[in-house]
Every structure is written in C-alpha cells, then in structure tokens.
Design brief:
Elements lengths: L16 H19 L1 H11 L5 H39 L2 H36 L7 H13 L1 H15 L4 H25 L3 H25 L16 H35 L2 H37 L3 H28 L1 H5 L6 H14 L6 H13 L3 H22 L8 H28 L3
Length: 452
C-alpha cells in the first residue's frame, strides 16, 4: 500500500482495500490468537493437574458462560463505539468521535462495577444451573471468586482496545493483548503449580495480566500518539451517543450472550444425558472453537474500521471491494480449519487432558460439533458488514437468530427425537451453522449489497 505521509496511514480511502484491511487485520489476528491464550492456557494447565485435573477443567468450563456474559458487556461498548468512531472520522467530525470514546469508557466503568457486585451475589446458583455438579462446584466457585475481583480490568482492556485499532494503530492494539498474554503465560505455572493455588492461581494470573493490558490501553488513549485523545469532558454521558453505541454494540453483545446461552443449555443437557465426562469434553471443544474462530474474528474486526471509514466517506465502490475480499479470505480459512479438526481430533484433545475416557468422548463430540464449521464464514461476513456500516437492527437480529432462535430450541428438541440423547445435543451446532450462516449472508446481499 503506497503511503506518502504519516497521515495517509490513517486515511482508509487511500490505496488498495485488500492491503488496507490486511494492514489492520494481521495485528488483530495475532492479538486475537494471543488473547485466546488467557483462558486456553488456564485450561491446559488445569487439565494436567495431578489427581483432580479433569474435575478442575470441568469446573472452569462450567464457569466460562459467566465470563462470556461479562465479556459481552465489554463488547457492547467496544464493538458499538469503535465502528461509530470510524464512521465519524470518515466524515471528518473528530470531536464527535472523541465523545464516542469517552462515553464508551464511562459505560464500561458503570457496567464493570455493577457486574462485579451482581456476580458475587448470584454465582453459586448460576453455576449449578449452568451444569455444575457437587464434585465440580468447588472448582468453579474458587475460580470465579478471584476472577470477579479483577473483572473491571478485564472489561476496560477488552472494551477500550478497539478504539486504538479504529484510529489505525493496529500494532499498538496487538501489543495490548500480547503484553497481557505473555504475562499470563509466565504467571500461570507459577501460581497453579509453584504456589499450589490451583484454579485460584489460574484466575489470579488472568486478572493480573488483564490489569496490565487495561493500564496500557488507557495510557495510550490519554497520550500524545493517539489521534483522538480521551479527556474529561468526553466522559460525560450524552443520551444520543449512548443510544447509538448500545444499539450498534447489541450485535457483538448478543452474539456473545447467545453463545453463552447455548453453552449453558448444552452443558445442562450434557450433564443430564451424560454427566461430568461429557461436560468436560465440551469444555475442551469450546476451547478449541475459541482458537479456531479467533483468526476470523481478528480479520473481520480489523476490516471494520476500513469498511466504516469508506462508508462514512461515501466510497461505496471501495466498500463492495472490501466485502468481496473479506468473503474470499474467511471462506478459505474456515474450510482449512474444518479439514484439520476433522482429521486430527485426538491429537488436539491431547493438549488438554490425556485421560482415555475423556479422550474417547471428546473426539466423537468434536467431529459432531465441527461437522459443518465452514458455514460459519458466511455468518461472519454478513455480521461484519452490518456492524461496519452501522446497520444495528440487522446485526442484532442475526446474532439472536443463529443461537437463541435456532440453537437453544434444537438443543432441547433434538435429544428427544428418536431417543437421540447425546447425539441430538451435539447435532444442534452443525444445523445452526448452515441455517444461521446462510440466512445472515443472503440477507446482507439483499439488503446492503444492492444499495451500495
């Protein structure tokens, strides 16, 4: 991409769309892959603890839907505010873009405090509801006791980092995640095994790492390098901006919450039909899915500022060029990952736990879960376009459609048909991938593409 001066680097109407997207997306992909290590590394270490590794792994897996819901509120502000910030930058209204950043920070602080208090009040009944047994509840509770203490740091790091990327500082945004993840990698074995803190050590390593990431983000956004710097006047909530941030952020929020909702019903159904062994296997599968999806998420998130900026600048031809490029890359990646997961499930499961009984269940479950994974690419393309262009209603609807409207009913209904049981629970995911992915993409083609 030909850049003639420093300012061109942050003007996304200049140069090739594919090169502009790659320039922002590559650091985001690396950042997302590193970010997934926060929870994945915890589970790998815990799964190999002597004696109670499988129960510890299952307990943390049961707690994960609560963490996903908490992170969804960070996405509500970050994925809602950052595309709006890009659009306003494209229109040349930097003051309004700055107010969007400030309002997003204030919302994150309010949500973080409220969720911490609420989490301590309701975590134990929620964990039982989400599939914990009397054997796994001590591990789940111990993890959440520590995690909730640092919840605010997690939300600030996740929720404010998109505003670094939306200004074109993709490498700085990547460093936010890399710094925290490397620290987490160092602290995990020290706390879990060295200090013998077990699941509490895993949670402590995570929140300390996220604290460092949050400090990094806020220092950058208040510093001289940022194009749009945080200031005190921008923190005052404005009704119009709050409504726009929350409306657009509902897409990412709904996707996270509905993912969590499906995990909750899936864990509860697996506990009913198969017990702790199947819940433990699903913990491994969700961990693998995080790794598999993160590059797509990083790529599409990196594309959002470029699409939004060009849309705000009324460069519709460039927007269409960008959409075509996103579609090609995501579909090719999804097919490649699907092939690897189908061919080498046993090797992948071995990273988390080597117990033979769990291995057998996890391998079969993985093949069912990822049977039609490549159709997810179409969901990501459609969602990315809707969010980037500020189409809040469509973005929210298709986040709900795939998981809440399709996924949850299928998890409850399929096991009862022809006595499918466990197989019915596992078959729900590939069905939702096909129907939800195609519905989102085809609607985007009909609603957005023609108007562009």
């Amino acid at each position: 991409m030909a850049l003639h001066n420093t300012g061109d680097k942050h003007d996304f109407t200049v140069g090739s769309m594919s090169e502009g997207i790659i320039r922002l997306a590559l650091p985001m992909i690396l950042a997302q892959l590193v970010n997934v290590l926060y929870n994945i590394v915890d589970r790998m270490y815990l799964g190999h603890m002597e004696g109670d590794g499988r129960l510890a792994l299952t307990g943390v897996g049961v707690a994960f839907p609560i963490i996903t819901i908490i992170n969804a509120f960070a996405n509500l502000c970050g994925s809602g505010g950052a595309p709006l910030c890009s659009i306003e930058r494209g229109r040349g209204d930097e003051e309004k873009a700055r107010r969007i950043i400030g309002n997003s920070l204030t919302l994150l602080l309010l949500f973080g405090i409220a969720l911490t208090v609420l989490g301590y009040l309701v975590k134990t009944p929620l964990l039982y509801l989400f599939g914990a047994s009397d054997e796994t509840i001590p591990y789940a509770n111990a993890y959440m006791d520590v995690y909730l203490a640092g919840n605010l740091f997690v939300m600030l790091g996740l929720g404010m980092n998109p505003f670094i990327e939306s200004q074109g500082f993709a490498k700085t945004g990547m460093l936010t995640v890399v710094i925290g993840a490397i620290l987490n990698l160092v602290l995990d074995p020290l706390f879990i095994f060295g200090l013998e803190l077990g699941v509490q050590g895993a949670a402590a390593a995570t929140i300390l790492s996220q604290f460092v990431s949050a400090v990094w983000v806020l220092c950058f956004l208040c510093g001289r390098r940022a194009i749009l710097r945080l200031n005190l006047p921008s923190l005052r909530l404005r009704r119009e901006l709050v409504k726009r941030i929350l409306a657009l952020g509902l897409s990412g929020f709904t996707m996270s919450v509905t993912n969590s909702l499906v995990q909750i019903f899936c864990n509860a159904s697996l506990q009913f039909y198969g017990g702790d062994l199947y819940v433990g296997a699903m913990t491994i599968i969700y961990s693998v899915r995080e790794v598999a999806q993160m590059p797509i998420q990083g790529f599409t998130q990196g594309a959002q500022p470029v699409l939004g900026y060009n849309y705000g600048a009324e460069k519709n031809g460039r927007v269409k060029e960008g959409i075509r490029f996103i579609r090609r890359v995501t579909v090719l990646y999804a097919v490649g990952v699907w092939a690897v997961l189908m061919l080498f499930p046993r090797f992948i499961v071995g990273f988390f736990n080597g117990e033979e009984a769990l291995m057998e269940v996890a391998v079969v479950s993985m093949r069912w879960h990822f049977a039609l994974f490549f159709f997810m690419a179409f969901q990501y393309v459609g969602q990315t376009v809707f969010v980037s262009l500020g189409k809040a209603k469509q973005a929210v609807f298709f986040s709900l459609f795939r998981k809440a409207i399709l996924g949850v009913p299928l998890i409850l209904i399929l096991p009862r048909l022809w006595d499918l049981g466990i197989t019915g629970v596992l078959a729900a995911e590939p069905v939702t991938n096909v129907v939800g992915g195609l519905a989102c993409y085809l609607t985007m083609r009909a609603v957005v593409w023609k108007k562009l």
